[in-house]
Amino acid sequence: QVQLVESGGGLVQPGGSLRLSCMSSGSIFNLYSKGWYRQAPGKQRELVATKGGLTTNYADSVKGRFTISTDSAKNTVYLQMDSLKPEDTAVYYCNFVRRDTQYWGQGTQVTVSS
Description:
Layout: E1 4-7, E2 10-12, E3 18-24, E4 33-39, E5 46-52, E6 55-58, E7 66-71, E8 76-81, E9 90-98, E10 101-104, E11 108-112
Parallel strand pairs: 2-11
Antiparallel strand pairs: 1-3, 3-8, 4-5, 4-9, 5-6, 7-8, 9-10, 9-11
């Protein structure tokens, strides 16, 4: 059974930074593309960033502020979030996908407020 465990969410002031972590169990880390999604209250879940091999993609709303990275030795994918804005407030989920199989983390709350 594959599990994705997220950490690093919290409350931060506008302009601040947070780093989210998502650690995977099992031996799937290098076989799957990784991504971060978020869901704000009353809105649909949306893609934030993805990383597959050497390719990374970002939503326009976070380009230049967020960075996705991986550490295969720790089976962990990170999302570094800088210059946070109130509109970044959401529950953030990590996602591993390969062909028609995907896994989701439990979600971690990020709140940007003064």
